[in-house]
């Protein structure tokens, strides 16, 4: 090490940190491990990181290393190239062709194609390589100074790391604690194994003493040591800089106060650089500004370059020169020197470097930093580099370069500037940077661009601004006017308009825009746009009350199959068909379509659209009576929504959380979720979410004993639906606008008003081919009849409701209907029937974790006054019913159908029943039941089963 080295040297102190690293590295051979070394600049992060790298290498782990500089942050996939440097072609041999091509293009191993890259192929390729390597050895992905990792590399590496489950992969980072890069926010919560963060504090006095003694090679007086340690706070780089200054001035301890001590780390570095850069300012600038500085490059860029002028910097440990490559020994040295060069000189040097570097993208960055005035040639060259970055699959870099191109476009080249602005917005959209999309396009529209530009700009702005649906509608209206006869753009606009109109409860507009999308797509004659348009029309038809258009979805899915999709899974016809079938309560038909969509998203890494599909699948499982599956999917959806800071998805998650909490009787918690839902819905003026939030809040009020408050919430929302549509009442939120209001009015003894709402409800339910709606309507009819004292007709209505439930059962609603039927039977003095019905209600409700309704059913049972004839006191009513049906010889599937539960739930109950009776088979269980009862019990059991 040089005598006065200011960079990273030998490791002093840090025993606890080293022990922690050793412990974590040992675990990596058994599964994934994450290690982050964090601290302030100069604190020794790189030193500890290098220690960890060498410790991993000593264990025989496979190393993938990147140590990006500040300059590297601007160059697409520079970090990925470093990580993959040294890997053989065999590591990519098993990748599918599209992934292998994408990876080779990103790493400059082959030419990128003429079209923009498939953004999904590259991150999947990186994941595939990591998994393949981890199958052979423990892999360490080691990144120093994470804050300088370029955004394109960060995106694809984060994609892969978030999908690590049990592979032997260790993530090893160093990072500035107050300067997160693009990778850290993605992996800090998304790396399944978690990340152990090692926060570096300053060295203690003893370690600082050893550091200075090794660096200065002389005895350090105690007073001098304490002064240096106090000023530096134990920061190794700062302490070394102060020590070097003391040594250079050759001052003794008695004159310590006479030495100009730098008061900040930056001052210390600047003071140190003053003594090595005379005559070397330009070469040092080039070393700081270029991604891979070499002597050859310095000679090409700088007139009369003299390598000897760098000798002082080498001797002082400011730069390292190895194998023709030159680097600053610490990033802060490069940053401080770069900033010290006056701007005019800096621009000139960047222009010289632009003429010397070989990479088109790096050349474009130097041009952008060197040119002073708008220049079309410069703008065009930067635009060309942006196109190369886009073809390599780096929209982040492409967008940044295009913004430089916009800046250098002359004022009289308005069409070129507008075109480049649209292109930049497109790339920002691909990179999911919607705030930058909005900023660019809002400024563009102020210039009143030509109609084709305006149409595209308004369309892109509408897609980016999901925070305000009325604003989106106004943008799309004008975009359609400006689009003229561009059928491709018109199709895209109309399809997006369908979703926006639904959120605004403009159901007539929904259908109108969907039909227009199909007309434009038919004229265009391409499979992809037509499939999307047909899907939009199918969704609009359902939203407007025309039922499920299976014919439209079948045609769209056939087009999807004929032209394998490369775009978003969320808008695929098969995925959307699953979403519509879920809303129509055809859960068994919807589940495989939604599961396929989720699986495809996971494989492709469509993180931004995975949230709504997970939510739909979670709601399906809730509706189907599978609470554990629901909560698992909902937890993943919530994490994804929070990670992407998506207001719309956060509101959807809050809605399902509120639904679950209310069913459990956790009303305070449910209210909090509804408040979140309504806050987000009001912010973006989403009328549909506002309605759904109002229904949820009304149910909470109703079930917690405030029917008047419930009615006040429901009546205005119900009247809006009556006035604006949709006419049908199939979806749960729409059904509860009627059913919950009827229950509230009955509780308020406003029976004539309840009858009026019921008549409307029955008419709507009979007209729509979903028996679920009619089942709930007949249940409400029973409640109104019972309130009028006509208990016999009320029971008949509830029997009819149960029959409708059997045609398309939703367990939560069936359980409630059985509960109401049993309650009315009790009031009608039909004790045996009431007891049987309420036990059946419990058998349905208990597996749903619906504590509120279970408590009500048990309370009703307690009022009957008859002892429940349980098979055994150790079983729940649900388990008792399963045991009873086993005794009759029914199969698991037949029991599931009878009790409206899944076969998995039946199997779970049987496990508990077998344990209770100490048996191992159905035959042994039947024998045990026979021994336990007498002939009368068997007669009663047969009676109860009929």
Word description of this protein:
The chain is globular. Strand 3, helix 6 and strand 4 form a beta-alpha-beta unit. It has a 5-stranded parallel beta sheet, sandwiched between helices. Strands 6-7 form a two-stranded antiparallel ribbon. Among the domains are: 185 residues, P-loop containing nucleotide triphosphate hydrolases (Rossmann fold); 69 residues; 78 residues, Arc Repressor Mutant, subunit A (Orthogonal Bundle), CATH 1.10.10. By secondary structure, it is mainly alpha-helical. Helices cover 67% and strands 4% of the residues.
Keywords:
single chain; 946 residues; mainly alpha; Arc Repressor Mutant, subunit A; five-stranded parallel beta sheet; 67% helix
**Unreliably modeled segments:** 1-8, 252-256, 934-946
> Into which percentage range does the β-strand content fall?
under 5%
Look at the structure and name the CATH superfamily of the domain at 15-199: P-loop containing nucleotide triphosphate hydrolases
Q: What distance lies between the first and last C-alpha atoms, to the nearest angstrom?
A: 92 Å
Helix content: 55-70%
Helix count from the secondary structure assignment: 47
Spatial strand sequence of the major β-sheet: 2-3-4-1-5
Helix/strand-derived category reads: mainly alpha
The major pleated sheet works out as:
5 strands, parallel
- Just name the CATH architecture of the domain at 15-199: 3-Layer(aba) Sandwich
């Amino acid at each position: 090490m040089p005598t006065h080295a200011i960079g990273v040297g030998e490791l002093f102190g840090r025993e606890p940190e080293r022990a922690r690293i050793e412990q974590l590295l040992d675990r990596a051979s058994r599964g994934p491990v994450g290690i982050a070394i964090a601290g302030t600049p100069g604190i020794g992060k790189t030193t500890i990181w290098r220690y960890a790298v060498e410790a991993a290498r000593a264990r025989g782990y496979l190393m993938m290393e990147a140590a990006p500089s500040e300059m590297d942050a601007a160059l697409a996939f520079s970090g990925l190239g470093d990580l993959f440097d040294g890997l053989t072609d065999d590591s990519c041999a098993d990748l599918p062709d599209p992934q292998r091509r994408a990876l080779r293009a990103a790493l400059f191993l082959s030419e990128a194609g003429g079209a923009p890259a498939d953004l999904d192929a590259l991150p999947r390729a990186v994941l595939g390589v990591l998994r393949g390597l981890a199958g052979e050895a423990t892999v360490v992905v080691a990144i120093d100074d994470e804050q300088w990792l370029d955004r394109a590399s960060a995106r694809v590496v984060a994609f892969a790391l978030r999908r690590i489950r049990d592979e032997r992969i260790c993530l090893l980072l160093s990072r500035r604690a107050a300067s997160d890069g693009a990778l850290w926010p993605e992996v800090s919560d998304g790396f399944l194994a978690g990340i152990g963060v090692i926060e570096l504090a300053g060295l203690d006095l003893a370690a600082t003493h050893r550091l200075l003694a090794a660096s200065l090679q002389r005895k350090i007086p105690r007073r001098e040591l304490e002064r240096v340690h106090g000023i530096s706070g134990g920061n190794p780089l700062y302490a070394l800089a102060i020590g070097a200054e003391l040594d250079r001035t050759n001052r003794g301890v008695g004159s310590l106060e006479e030495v100009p001590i730098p008061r900040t780390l930056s001052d210390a570095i600047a003071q140190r650089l003053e003594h090595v850069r005379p005559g070397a300012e330009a070469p040092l600038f080039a070393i700081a500004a270029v991604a891979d500085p070499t002597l050859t490059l310095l000679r090409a860029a700088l007139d009369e370059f003299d390598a000897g002028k760098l000798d002082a910097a080498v001797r002082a440990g400011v730069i390292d020169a190895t194998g023709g490559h030159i680097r600053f020994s610490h990033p802060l040295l490069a940053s401080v020197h770069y900033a010290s060069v006056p701007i005019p000189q800096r621009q000139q040097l960047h222009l010289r470097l632009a003429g010397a570097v070989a990479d088109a993208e790096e050349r474009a960055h130097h041009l952008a930093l060197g040119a002073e005035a708008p220049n079309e040639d410069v703008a065009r060259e930067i635009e060309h580099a942006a196109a190369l970055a886009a073809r390599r699959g780096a929209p982040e870099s492409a967008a940044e370069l295009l913004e430089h191109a916009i800046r250098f476009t002359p004022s009289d080249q308005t069409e070129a500037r507008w075109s480049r602005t649209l292109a930049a917005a497109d790339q920002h959209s691909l990179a999911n940077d919607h705030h930058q999309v909005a900023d660019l396009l809002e400024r563009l529209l102020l210039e009143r661009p030509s109609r084709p530009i305006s149409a595209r700009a308004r369309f892109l702005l509408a897609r980016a601004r999901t925070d305000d649906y009325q604003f989106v509608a106004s943008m799309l209206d004008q975009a359609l006017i400006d689009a003229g006869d561009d059928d491709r753009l018109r199709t895209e606009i109309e399809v997006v308009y369908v979703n926006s109109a639904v959120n605004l409860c403009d159901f007539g507009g929904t259908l109108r825009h969907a039909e227009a999308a199909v007309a434009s797509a038919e004229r265009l004659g391409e499979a992809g746009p037509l499939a999307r348009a047909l899907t939009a029309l199918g969704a609009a038809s359902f939203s407007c009350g025309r039922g499920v258009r299976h014919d439209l979805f079948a045609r769209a899915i056939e087009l999807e199959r004929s032209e394998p999709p490369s775009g978003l899974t969320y808008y695929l016809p098969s995925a959307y068909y699953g979403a519509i079938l879920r809303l129509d309560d055809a859960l068994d038909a919807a589940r495989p379509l939604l599961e396929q969509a989720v699986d495809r998203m996971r494989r492709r890494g469509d993180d931004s659209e995975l949230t709504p599909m997970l939510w739909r699948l979670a709601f399906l499982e809730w509706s189907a009576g599978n609470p554990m599956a629901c909560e698992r999917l909902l937890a993943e959806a919530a994490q994804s929504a929070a990670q992407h800071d998506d207001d719309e998805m956060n509101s959807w998650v809050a809605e399902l959380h509120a639904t679950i909490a209310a069913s459990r009787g956790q009303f305070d918690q449910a209210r909090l979720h509804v408040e979140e839902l309504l806050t987000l819905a009001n912010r973006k003026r989403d009328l549909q979410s506002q309605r759904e939030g109002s229904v949820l809040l009304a149910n909470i009020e109703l079930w917690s004993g405030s029917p008047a408050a419930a009615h006040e919430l429901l009546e205005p929302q119900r009247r809006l639906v009556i006035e604006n549509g949709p006419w049908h009442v199939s979806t749960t939120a729409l059904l509860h606008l009627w059913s919950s209001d009827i229950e509230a009015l009955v509780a308020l003894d406003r029976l004539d008003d309840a009858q009026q709402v019921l008549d409307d409800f029955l008419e709507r339910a009979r007209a729509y081919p979903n028996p679920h709606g009619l089942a709930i309507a007949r249940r409400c009819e029973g409640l109104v009849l019972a309130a009028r004292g006509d208990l016999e007709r009320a029971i008949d209505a509830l029997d009819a409701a149960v029959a409708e439930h059997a045609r398309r059962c939703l367990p939560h609603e069936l359980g409630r209907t059985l509960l109401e039927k049993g309650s009315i039977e009790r009031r009608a003095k039909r004790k045996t029937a009431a007891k049987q019905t309420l036990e059946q209600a419990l058998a349905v409700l208990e597996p749903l974790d619906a504590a509120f309704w279970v408590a009500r059913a048990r309370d009703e049972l307690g009022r009957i006054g008859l002892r429940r004839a349980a098979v055994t006191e150790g079983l729940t009513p649900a388990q008792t019913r399963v045991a009873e049906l086993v005794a009759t010889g029914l199969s698991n599937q037949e029991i599931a159908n009878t009790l409206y539960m899944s076969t998995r739930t039946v199997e779970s109950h049987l496990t508990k029943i077998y344990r209770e009776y100490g048996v191992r088979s159905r035959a042994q269980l039947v024998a045990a039941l026979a021994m336990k009862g007498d002939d009368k019990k068997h007669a009663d059991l047969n009676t109860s089963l009929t």
